[in-house]
Design a protein that fits this description.
α3 crosses α6 and α5 crosses α6. The protein folds into four domains: 137 residues, P-loop containing nucleotide triphosphate hydrolases (Rossmann fold); 99 residues, no CATH class; 80 residues, Rossmann fold (3-Layer(aba) Sandwich), CATH 3.40.50; 153 residues, no CATH class. It has 539 residues and is of the alpha/beta class. Helix content is 49%, strand content 16%. β1 and β2 form a beta hairpin.
Length: 539
């Protein structure tokens, strides 16, 4: 069955066709996934009259008592009441129906189990030993048998039985009320009961099936439920990426954001991803919760990069990768499947004195090299140092210029220590020589033509020139150029700068720098200007 829905977007609507394929709605917290599930419920309720099962994320996982309170009469009332409950926008955020949904699921399961055996008994009564019901009973395919099989497939070592006319749990020979099952077991049981007892061709709207469930349970559970009821449509909103990865022929609605008006959703920003099997799981992780533009930056989880760029580009999703090569793989990989996700992807890596030719190669891949040596060059730029000094001056009651002179003096004193200039010159020369050697690696033609003769690669060392340059910068007191063009974290001067501004060390200074940048729009603009063309792409 194909059902068409129309979802509002900024400036219009987008039409989607929901088919028999499972639909997974993905997105970070706050993007409007639950609101979209509720909106879809309103769109399709007329196509699934009496066959729509809506399980909002607000649903409780417990029962109010050890025994069901639902009767045949209250079960009938549920049908009319649930339409009113489900249409309320509050159903997304609070359990407006209490535990009634849970009772209904178990009531329907018990009714289906009883009816199964009553039908079998009547058939045997009428046809005797020739009844096919005998074989049917022996096949262990009753509703309760199917529930227990699904619990087992979901890695839950518990089963259910009918005892004294009630559905109960059994584990290790002990029989007890289902209300006393663990949260995860109850959650799984209620969901399984809903699916097993549902009418033919039902449609399920399930918001966050992973509630109270470990991924080792929810992933096989959802897969087993979908395999158990291929006649039912399944629309699942989830944070669990392993769910869609288990269903390569599914549809994915990637929700990026929602526009609200008067407390109600007015429009969504989303992509419909088809051919999801072409998107590797690690790429889906990067897409999940991402905004329209994604910036991959070089650095570890403890690095300075991510928090800085998140402040500078608040409307961009920032993702970290430990090395330049990992940034390249992420950006190139996502750009190769851009037609499946529609996000714009960029990369930003440290300059590390890389050759201009290599920078241009990266640029062709959508990856920008910092115009300065590394992210420390931004944190300890004269603009940021001055802004932090101003705040310190206000706090400490001293002159900002005195603080700056003090920290610059300490840093230059350290740079004049024996071996500092040599280390910086050697580090820059190392990178430059490596790039030149890699650029001159012989190709196959030269290798074949050379036969067994040695192939020599001659590269002039830039060390002597580089050493003279850094010594001149130190002599001139040009700290700005040194911070901008060299690996200053290896020299110890960052600690000098931090302590010169009356901080305990680099970590405290860097936290203060982020705070100052966050509150200073002019400083943010200055840093963005330093990043050049990348800023234009991300704005």
């Amino acid at each position: 069955m194909t059902v068409g829905i129309s979802i509002p977007i900024e400036g219009g609507t987008r039409n989607l066709s929901l088919t028999d394929r499972p639909v997974f709605i993905l997105g970070r917290n706050g993007t409007g996934k639950s609101a979209l599930v509720h909106y879809i419920r309103g769109q399709i309720q007329h196509q699934y009259v009496g066959r729509l099962v809506y399980l909002p994320g607000s649903r409780p996982s417990y029962f109010d008592s050890d025994s069901l309170s639902m009767t045949a009469n209250s079960r009938l009332q549920f049908e009319s009441n649930s339409a009113s409950w489900d249409s309320s926008p509050d159903v997304r955020i609070r359990p407006v129906s209490g535990t009634t949904r849970n009772e209904r699921a178990i009531f329907d399961l018990q009714a289906a189990e009883i009816q199964y055996h009553v039908d079998a008994a009547n058939d045997i009564k009428e046809n005797g030993t020739a009844s096919s019901a005998i074989q049917k009973l022996q096949s262990k395919s009753s509703p309760l048998d199917r529930v227990n099989r699904l619990l087992l497939q979901s890695n839950l070592p518990v089963k259910t039985i009918i005892d004294s006319g009630e559905l109960k749990a059994q584990r290790n020979g002990n029989i007890y009320s289902i209300s006393r099952m663990s949260d995860g077991e109850r959650t799984a049981l209620i969901l399984i009961a809903d699916v097993i007892a549902a009418k033919n061709g039902a449609c399920f709207l399930i918001d966050e099936p992973e509630l109270h469930l470990h991924r080792s349970i929810v992933v096989p559970l959802i897969a087993a439920l979908m395999a158990e009821r291929p006649d039912c449509a399944m629309i699942v909103s989830t944070h669990e990426l392993s769910l869609p990865s288990e269903h390569p022929n599914c549809s994915i609605i990637l929700v990026r954001g929602c526009v609200w008006s008067g407390g109600a959703p007015r429009a969504w920003d989303f992509d419909e991803i088809s051919d999801a099997e072409n998107i590797p799981i690690e790429v889906r992780i990067d897409l999940l919760g991402s905004r329209r533009k994604i910036l991959f930056v070089e650095g570890k989880s403890t690095s300075l990069d991510q928090p800085l760029y998140a402040l500078i580009f608040p409307r961009i999703s920032i993702r970290q990768r430990e090395t330049c090569n990992e940034v390249r793989r992420a950006v190139v990989g996502l750009r190769q499947v851009q037609s499946h996700h529609h996000a714009e992807v960029f990369g930003l890596v440290d300059n590390d004195s890389m050759e201009v030719d290599f920078q241009e190669k990266l640029l062709n891949e959508g990856i920008y090299a910092l115009p300065m040596f590394s992210v420390e060059s931004i944190y300890y730029s004269i603009e940021v140092l001055s802004a932090v000094a101003e705040r310190q001056a206000t706090t400490l009651g001293v002159a900002a210029d005195d603080l700056l002179r003090n920290c610059f003096s300490k840093a230059l004193e350290t740079l004049n220590n024996p071996g500092k200039a040599e280390h910086l010159a050697a580090r820059i020369s190392e990178r430059q020589m490596r790039d030149k050697i890699l650029a001159n690696i012989p190709d196959r033609k030269l290798i074949v033509a050379s036969g067994s003769d040695p192939i020599n690669i001659s590269v002039v060392s830039p060390y002597a020139t580089g050493l003279n340059k850094i010594k001149a910068l130190i002599s001139d007191g040009n700290l700005t150029s040194i911070i901008n063009g060299y690996p200053v974290r290896e020299t110890g001067i960052l600690g000098d700068l931090a302590k010169g501004l009356r901080f305990l060390g680099e970590i405290d200074y860097e936290k203060a720098a982020l705070s100052v940048i966050n509150m200073n729009d002019y400083l943010k603009s200055t840093i963005k200007n330093k990043l050049g063309a990348l800023s234009n792409q991300l704005d």
